[in-house]
Amino acid sequence: HAKANGKDGYCFYSDTMSINSANRLSLERDLRLALDRRELMVCYQPQVCASSGRVLGLEALVRWQHPERGLLYPRDFLPLAEETGLIGKLSQQVLDQACHDAGLWIRDGHPDLRLAVNLSPSQVEHPQFVKTLLEQLQTHRFPAANLEIEITENVIMNDLDQISRKLQDLADTGIRIAIDDFGTGYSSLNYLHRLPIHTLKVDQSFVRSIRSRDDGVCIVNAIIAMAHGLKLEIVAEGVETDEQLHYLKRLGCHQVQGFYYGPAVPAAEIAPLLNISKLPPSRTG
Ligand code: C2E
Ligand code: MG
Ligand code: MG
Ligand code: MG
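A: This is the predicted complex of the input protein with magnesium ion.
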């Protein structure tokens, strides 16, 4: 379109393009450096038992403290990592860090603590995925039963037989499998009884609709009812208010995760959270 506007339009378009690609190149170079120096940081967000308020699990969420750009979130650099093939190295470092940190907490009086780790589609599609993951756990002597991997429905869209074999191999070792952002992907529900799935994570967009009482609430109700029927555990994501918490508890949602209990925090801030049975709400009402 810009081209059709004549010479000026074309130049404007082309300048914007080169600025963006320069920006992209510098971010890519910085990400390579950060990975070489192991500078990415893993933060942990509590997954809380809806009835007792105890912390049952922690989800590892990657952060990048960039020297000039400040603290970066996954949306700022994960797409780039996917496009440039750096995602493999990044995922490996996140899992290393998370197994190290959670391993200490597990051995330090929290034997049942669950570590939840997000996996990217390309990671799961890699032919050596299962082998690499199991080797990493072994290196850290991290108990498989304490790990839950989170995959999205987009991972399942492709080859159901192949993904089924991989997930079954992992489930056989005791690793748990969660479907993240449940209800927002493009897969059919068919996979739910064909794959070894343990947990459904209700996407935060549905949880948000509890306040406004729009049609999204019906989806929350349906997902939780279905999870009960299939004997799956339910984690509600993005819980921010008392109202959402009470609604979800009433429906029989097992676990909640969200700013109501707290955001993802650095490893150093986790130990105190594991020893209290009711986290103070981060906001009231
Ligand atoms: P996700 O796995 O669905 O994680 C939940 C996201 O919601 C996190 O964003 C979390 O900080 C945010 N969140 C938690 N509670 C609340 C709340 O109450 N309200 C709101 N508005 N947001 C809340 P974050 O850390 O920016 O991560 C975004 C996504 O990036 C994650 O979504 C996950 O898909 C991906 N991701 C994060 N870390 C990793 C990683 O190490 N590897 C891979 N492959 N993906 C990751
Ligand atoms: Mg997740
Ligand atoms: Mg999610
Ligand atoms: Mg998400």
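Residues 1-13 have pLDDT under 50 and may be disordered. Residues 7-36 form the longest helix (30 residues).
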